[in-house]
Automatic annotation (TrEMBL):
Record protein name field: Alkaline ceramidase
Keyword Kinase: no
The encoding gene: ACER3
Residues annotated to bind Zn(2+): 81, 217, 221
Species: Pan troglodytes
This enzyme's EC code(s): 3.5.1.-
Superkingdom assignment: Eukaryota
Binding residues for Ca(2+): 19-20, 22, 24, 33
Cofactor(s) this protein requires: Zn(2+)
Function: Hydrolyzes the sphingolipid ceramide into sphingosine and free fatty acid.
InterPro entries in the cross-refs: ACER (IPR008901)
EC top class named in words: hydrolase
Alphabetical keyword list: Calcium, Hydrolase, Lipid metabolism, Membrane, Metal-binding, Sphingolipid metabolism, Transmembrane, Transmembrane helix, Zinc
């Protein structure tokens, strides 16, 4: 976490329970943590296009919700890191729980008939979200949020491993790439927390262009944003395979992955 001595800017004193390692208001007076803010674009723009494409393709609403939930997380994180206000922190952290619950629902419902609804699982995930929200608003302890979020991510990891091991082994590449990128982001998150003082001292001694590369919380956003996006593709690929579609992962401009598919033709 960041040392206490940080300058104030447009949004006034910090009220959030967390203040990350990036130097506050060092780039502009209007954004508290500039790089931690703009790095959220990867969680905002691509999932919006994914949601639009899902509507056009007539996909089940839960996949549209997955894309939109990731966009909401990115927007909330943008607001949090831009202001370092407690209310904006909640706008970042609580949607992380809600979006993961949507991901869990999708992963456990990928082998059901089309447009089916599992009301028991839906009720359980909504209840879990309500309990986590209520407790977190009361205790205001970030570690509680991190543990709850970690539980959901671990559930997704176990389900993904089951699918690529026992159901669709040829999806290992996509599944493990998503997991690997996410875990690399988690490693950078820990480096940013543990070695914050050393990182700040290093940034004082090197040119700004080099210092930017050590903003590891921004890298956490980029990598977990990409990892989460790839997880949605993995979940959607699994689902459309089960529904006897022909899914394919393509790369827009040779860089950004998207999923395209067509229904299996009837003869």
């Amino acid at each position: 976490m960041a040392p206490a001595a940080d300058r104030e800017g447009y949004w006034g004193p910090t009220t959030s329970t967390l203040d990350w390692c990036e130097e506050n208001y060092s780039v502009t007076w209007y954004i508290a943590e500039f790089w931690n803010t703009v790095s959220n674009l990867i969680m905002i723009i691509p999932p919006m296009f994914g949601a639009i494409q899902s509507v056009r393709d007539g996909l089940e609403k839960r996949y549209i919700a997955s894309y939109l939930a990731l966009t909401v997380v990115g927007m909330g994180s943008w607001c949090f890191h831009m202001t370092l206000k407690y209310e904006m922190q909640l706008l970042d952290e609580l949607p992380m729980i809600y979006s993961c619950c949507i991901f869990v629902y999708c992963m456990f419902e990928c082998f059901k008939i089309k447009n089916s609804v599992n009301y028991h699982l839906l009720f359980t995930l909504v209840l879990f979200s309500l309990i986590v929200t209520t407790v977190y608003l009361k205790v205001k302890e970030p570690i509680f949020h991190q543990v709850m979020y970690g539980m959901l991510v671990f559930t997704l990891v176990l389900r993904s491993i089951y699918i690529v091991t026992w159901v669709y082994p040829w999806l290992r590449g996509l599944g493990y790439t998503s997991l690997g990128i996410f875990l690399l982001g988690f490693l950078f998150w820990n480096i940013d927390n543990i070695f914050c003082e050393s990182l700040r001292n290093f940034r004082k001694k090197v040119p700004p262009i080099i210092g930017i590369t050590t903003q590891f919380h921004a890298w956490w956003h980029i990598l977990t944003g990409l990892g989460s996006y790839l997880h949605i593709l993995f979940s959607l690929y699994t689902r459309t395979l089960y529904l006897r579609y022909r899914p394919k992962v393509k790369f827009l401009f040779g860089i950004w992955p998207v999923i395209l598919f067509e229904p299996l033709r009837k003869h």
